[in-house]
Structure to design on (335 residues):
C-alpha cells in the first residue's frame, strides 16, 4: 500500500502510522503539528527516525486540497486515510470549524480522487457510532445489536451529521466510479494517546487516572452509561484490513465494527481490581456529553464486517485494560 495519512498527529493517526510503518507499507503523513508535538509526543519523531520516515511527515494543513493534491502526486498514493475531525463535544462548541474540517476537507479529497479517477484511489474514512441518534418516538433508543444498515441514522450532534453526510457523499463518489470510498463506524477508542474532545473521553480519562495512580476521580457521566468501545490496535487494524479487502466482496460502503460494550461502572470496577482504592464519583447527569452518549447505540451488530472482510476484534475488556495501563505508564516514563 502507498498510504497518505491526513491528520497523522491525532489519537488515531499516530497509532495508524505506527501500524503501517511496522507492516512495511510506504507511508506519507500530514498534520498541522510537527511529529514531536503529535498526540504520541516525542515518541512519534523517534518512531519516524527508526523507519527513516522523518522527511515524509509534512507539517501542513491536511484539510487544504492543494496540499493534499501535492502529496498524493508526489508519493503516488493509492490509499488516503482521511482522519482530520472535530469530535462530538468540540464540534458542538465550534460548528463552523467542525463542518469545514470534517466535511469540506473530505469533499476536497473526493474531488481530488475524481480528478485522478483512472488511478481508483481508495479513501478510508472513519465514521462513528455518533452517526446514530435518538429514534423518534422510541423511548430508550436503539435495541442492543444495531445493524450496519439500520434505518434511522439521525444524529444529535453536528459531528454525527458530518459522519452520516461523509458516508453518503463518499458512497455517491464511489457509485459514480470516481473514488473507492470505504468507511467504518468506530466506537469510542481507547489508547495510550490522549483523545481530543469526544464524549467517550470519560473512559479515556478513567484509564489515564488509574494508570497514574489517582484513586478518586470525578467523571461527567452516570454510572449506567453504556456505549461501545475498542482498543486502538483493533481500530487501526480495521482501517487497514478494510482498505485491503477485495472490492468484489463488499456489499456496502460503511460498516459497523464492534468489540466491547462495558458500562461506565463496569469499566471502573475493572480498573479498581487492578488499582487498589480506585473510585469514581459519578455525575447525576446534566453535562451535554451525557445526552450525546445516551443517543448512541449501546451495542452494535457488526456481522457484515465479519462476513465480508473478516473483521474481528482481539481485545476484550480485561486484555484492553491490562495492555493500556502498561502502555500509558510506559509512555509517561518516556515523556
Ligand atoms: C466522540 O465521543 O465524539 C468520539 C466518537 C464516538 O466518535 N469518540
Amino acid at each position: 500500500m502507498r498510504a497518505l495519512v491526513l491528520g497523522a498527529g491525532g489519537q488515531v493517526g499516530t497509532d495508524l502510522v505506527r501500524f503501517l510503518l511496522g507492516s512495511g507499507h510506504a507511508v506519507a503523513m500530514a498534520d498541522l503539528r510537527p511529529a514531536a508535538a503529535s498526540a504520541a509526543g516525542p515518541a512519534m519523531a523517534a518512531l519516524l527516525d527508526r523507519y527513516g520516515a522523518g522527511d515524509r511527515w509534512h507539517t501542513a494543513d491536511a484539510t487544504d486540497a492543494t496540499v493534499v493534491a501535492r502529496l498524493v502526486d508526489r508519493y503516488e498514493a493509492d490509499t488516503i486515510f482521511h482522519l482530520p475531525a472535530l469530535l462530538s463535544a468540540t464540534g458542538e462548541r465550534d460548528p463552523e470549524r467542525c463542518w469545514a474540517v470534517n466535511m469540506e476537507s473530505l469533499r476536497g479529497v473526493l474531488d481530488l480522487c475524481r480528478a485522478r479517477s483512472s488511478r481508483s484511489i481508495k479513501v478510508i474514512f472513519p465514521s462513528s457510532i455518533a452517526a446514530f441518534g435518538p429514534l423518534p418516538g422510541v423511548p430508550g433508543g436503539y435495541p442492543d445489536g444495531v445493524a450496519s444498515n439500520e434505518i434511522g441514522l439521525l444524529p444529535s450532534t453536528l459531528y454525527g451529521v458530518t459522519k452520516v453526510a461523509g458516508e453518503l457523499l463518499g458512497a455517491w463518489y464511489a457509485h459514480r466510479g470516481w473514488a473507492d470510498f470505504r468507511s467504518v463506524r468506530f466506537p469510542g477508542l481507547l489508547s495510550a494517546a490522549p483523545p481530543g474532545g469526544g464524549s467517550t473521553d470519560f473512559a479515556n480519562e478513567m484509564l489515564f487516572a488509574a494508570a497514574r495512580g489517582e484513586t478518586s476521580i470525578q467523571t461527567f457521566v452516570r454510572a449506567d452509561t453504556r456505549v461501545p468501545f475498542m482498543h486502538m490496535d483493533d481500530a487501526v487494524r480495521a482501517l487497514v484490513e478494510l482498505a485491503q479487502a477485495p472490492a468484489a466482496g463488499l456489499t456496502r460502503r460503511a460498516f459497523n465494527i464492534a468489540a466491547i460494550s462495558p458500562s461506565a461502572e463496569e469499566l471502573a470496577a475493572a480498573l479498581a481490581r487492578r488499582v487498589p482504592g480506585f473510585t469514581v464519583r459519578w455525575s447525576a447527569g446534566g453535562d451535554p456529553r451525557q445526552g450525546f452518549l445516551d443517543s448512541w447505540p449501546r451495542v452494535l451488530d457488526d456481522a457484515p464486517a465479519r462476513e465480508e472482510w473478516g473483521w474481528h476484534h482481539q481485545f476484550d475488556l480485561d486484555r484492553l485494560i491490562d495492555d493500556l495501563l502498561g502502555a500509558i505508564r510506559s509512555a509517561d516514563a518516556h515523556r
Summary: The radius of gyration is 19 Å. The mean pLDDT is 94.
